[in-house]
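Hey,
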Amino acid sequence: MRDVHEEAYGRPVELRDLARLVAVADHQHVSAAADSLGASQPTLSRALARCEAELGARLFERVPDGVRATPAGALAVEAAREIGERHARLLTELAHLLDPATGLVRLAFLDSMATSLVPSLLRAFHARAPQVRVELRQEPGHEIADDFDRAAIDLAVVSDLPEGPYGWHQLQEERLVLVVPAGHRWRDRAAVDLAEVGGEELITTPPGFGSRRLLDGLLRAAGVAPRISFQSQDLATIEGLVAAGLGVGVLPEAFAGHSGTVGLRLTTPGARRLIGLTWRTDRELAPAAEGFRRFVVEAGPGVGLPQPGSR
């Protein structure tokens, strides 16, 4: 025999049923709640029955002047109210996110690009799309790769193209120099080859950093087994350690000279660092992020960026 309850109320609870539940609690009367929602009283009664059937508890009890929530009903109404409010916020946030003029761009970048490149890029974009919010993450290259894997970022400004399904747009090319202390015996030389630095104490970034991978490749090609004295995640710190006489370093030219160091041109082939914007190609960018990507690509290398020699 077919269950009468199943026949009348077999539909699962819907979001609008929770709104009806809240209305009954607020008005403490089924007919008044129905009027406020523009629904019929039988429709509201069926919605309450569905909620009670799904939750397995009576949610309201009759009183002389209407209805009153039971303890289980009070708990259900509180949860229903929170769900309704969160749903309303979700719709608002999604509307902003999906609007290319007011959405969110999640941009990661390397520490070495924090003082000139990224601010200049954002200034140019902000002039074009002032209502778009940009969430910034300043972190090492391996953390940027992890963030891409977790879909925690949309785009990144990096010094080497990650392996895998990534797009790439070059922004700059930076010349690398050998940075030496002011009192170093090579300070007056115009240029040097990496093959000559085998006997020098070398200060560099830790393994896993893009700049370290680049340097390791250059040293291998030059046949040099480096003697590493210090490692730092920050290129400006490396320049400071060199200035203190603790070794030499290979850095972008913009980092030389700030603490009294001297930058010597490297004659080693490939002694340059490419800077570019990257993004995943195996998933769709949100409209605002796609707008940012398109702005950078279409604007070309100029896009209000500083010259490689500035920091």
